[in-house]
């Protein structure tokens, strides 16, 4: 956490991976960008000053990522498993 700049402001992208056989049809992954809001408590630097009992910082969701109906249309669930890819665009200066 000390290597990151706070509040967290890097672009995050979530992808629900289509597990269909690529030799039968082109996978149709569901991808949504998630622009962080530096004003949210969830994007502030974690530390001892944050109470673990503060429910407003326990996490957040993505309620309209995909409907239950749409998730059944393709092979997003296969063998009782789903795969969600999270990508974070990290500035080069942090990677160096």
UniProtKB/TrEMBL annotation:
This is TNF receptor-associated factor 4. Residues 1-88 form the MATH domain. Pfam families: TRAF-mep_MATH. Keywords: Receptor. It comes from Apaloderma vittatum. It comes from the Eukaryota. GO terms for molecular function: tumor necrosis factor receptor binding; ubiquitin protein ligase binding. One of its GO terms (biological process) is regulation of canonical NF-kappaB signal transduction. Residues 20-56 are annotated as: Disordered.
């Amino acid at each position: 956490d000390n290597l990151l700049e706070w509040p967290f402001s890097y672009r995050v992208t979530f992808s629900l991976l289509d597990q269909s056989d690529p030799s039968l049809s082109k996978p149709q992954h569901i991808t949504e960008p998630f622009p962080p809001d530096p004003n949210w408590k969830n994007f502030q630097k974690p530390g001892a000053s944050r109470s673990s009992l503060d429910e407003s910082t326990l996490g957040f969701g993505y309620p309209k990522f995909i409907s239950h109906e749409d998730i059944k249309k393709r092979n997003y669930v296969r063998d009782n498993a789903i795969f969600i890819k999270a990508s974070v665009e990290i500035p080069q200066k942090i990677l160096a």
